[in-house]
Design goal:
Helix content is 50%, strand content 13%. With 212 residues, it is an alpha+beta fold. It has one domain: H-NOX domain, CATH 3.90.1520.10. Helix 1 packs antiparallel against helix 2 and helix 2 runs parallel beside helix 5. The termini are far apart. Bound molecules: zinc ion.
């Protein structure tokens, strides 16, 4: 079966975000549970100084989904979901540091756009980043009152089989992106279909009307 990858820089963003949410001990046990000992230093602590270069596309989709599965094994279904959502939200800040300039979202011209335009321009730029720099495939669909983020090849639930949508990391990332571009508002973001449940794509619906 074909293997798909993220660049190491994105893998590191996920691991740093997980460390922020789980703490030093938490990330250490998740890495062990996921057989990712190469990210542990000699003392057994998480180290982001992995030998692979940041641009190497060697962080496999299987690794991403194994990390998510380990969260559920370690914290239970509810706790796993909660920690994955929080880790997804934490990914945004690290991602902004790494990719903000390329995305163009830190430019004044972007920041001055009205929110609905900002949302659509931002969603397409964000999808392009995944489509060009990773093996993940994203299609943005604008249905007027809702914006759909279709992940057509998804690392988060890669080769998993679950009874409910499982891509909480992606939902958290989108929630935080919306929070940031709207200047601190909250939105309904929900995964409605998921490849792990037998659907064709992992589809996340964004309601562009803030709830607060
Ligand atoms: Zn998925």
């Amino acid at each position: 079966m074909t293997e798909y990858f993220y660049p190491q820089s994105m893998g590191r963003i996920i691991l740093l975000a997980m460390e922020e949410v789980l703490g030093r001990e938490g990330i250490r046990s998740i890495l062990r549970l996921s057989s990712l000992d190469s990210y542990l230093d000699k003392s057994g602590s998480f180290s982001d100084r992995h030998p692979a270069a940041r641009t190497d596309r060697t962080f496999s989709f299987g690794t991403v989904s194994r990390l998510m599965e380990s969260l559920e094994r370690a914290y239970g279904p509810q706790g796993g979901r909660g920690t994955a959502l929080r880790a997804g939200r934490a990914c945004f800040q690290y991602g902004l540091r790494e990719y903000g300039l390329q995305l163009g979202v830190t430019e004044m011209a972007y920041r001055l756009l009205p929110f609905p335009t900002k949302l659509r321009v931002g969603a397409h730029a964000f999808a392009d980043l995944f489509n060009k720099q990773t093996d993940q495939r994203v299609r943005v669909e604008d249905k007027g009152d809702k914006l759909y983020w279709h992940i057509e090849r998804c690392p988060v639930c890669w080769e998993r089989h679950t009874s409910d949508p499982a891509c909480h990391l992606a939902v958290g990332l989108l929630q935080e992106s919306l929070y940031w571009i709207s200047g601190g508002r909250l939105f309904n973001v929900e995964e409605v279909t998921c490849v792990a449940c037998g659907d064709d794509a992992c589809s996340i619906v964004i309601d562009p009307t803030p709830v607060s």
